[in-house]
Design a protein that fits this description.
153 residues; mainly alpha; two-stranded antiparallel sheet; two-stranded parallel ribbon; 52% helix
């Protein structure tokens, strides 16, 4: 079977954990199906076989830790990240979300906001959000807050 990847790239993929391969390969397809995001989400397993989001989620819920890397300004990456997070929430009730964009010293305000003890305005004044917070990170925070999922700075 022919694939889009060079022999060197395939060798590197084999060295990575299965779950990371799914994420990394999926990111390579950013904007490949730009008009149909929801139907464009798919991943490749270690044999370069197409795997659906549903299958990935079923495999991912068996892990204690799931890393999702993204380019901070990439709309597609954030779309897939949010979709994966929402699917995991449906299946795995006990979760914690950790986000690099929040610095450790802002944890208090992050927790207060998630617990609905302070307003979003006060929260945003205290946590120094990145410029793309509203567009890319607010949906994750909103979903965590709605589902009472702890967020770690």
């Amino acid at each position: 079977m022919k694939t889009l990847f060079s022999k060197k790239y395939k060798t590197e993929l084999k060295k990575m954990s299965k779950i990371m391969r799914y994420f990394i390969v999926s990111m390579l397809f950013q904007f490949f199906f730009s008009n149909v995001y929801s139907n464009a989400i798919f991943f490749l397993d270690k044999k370069s076989k197409k795997v659906s989001l549903k299958t990935l989620v079923e495999k991912a819920i068996k892990f204690d830790v799931i890393f999702f890397g993204e380019h901070h300004d990439n709309n597609y990456h954030h779309f897939v990240q949010l979709k994966l997070f929402s699917e995991l929430i449906k299946r795995k009730k006990k979760m914690v979300l950790s986000m690099e964009m929040f610095e450790k010293d802002t944890q208090r305000y992050l927790s207060l906001y998630i617990d609905k003890k302070i307003s979003e305005t006060k929260f945003l004044k205290q946590v120094r959000p990145w410029m793309n917070y509203k567009k890319h990170y607010h949906p994750l925070i909103f979903m965590a807050r709605k589902n009472k999922i702890r967020v770690i700075a």
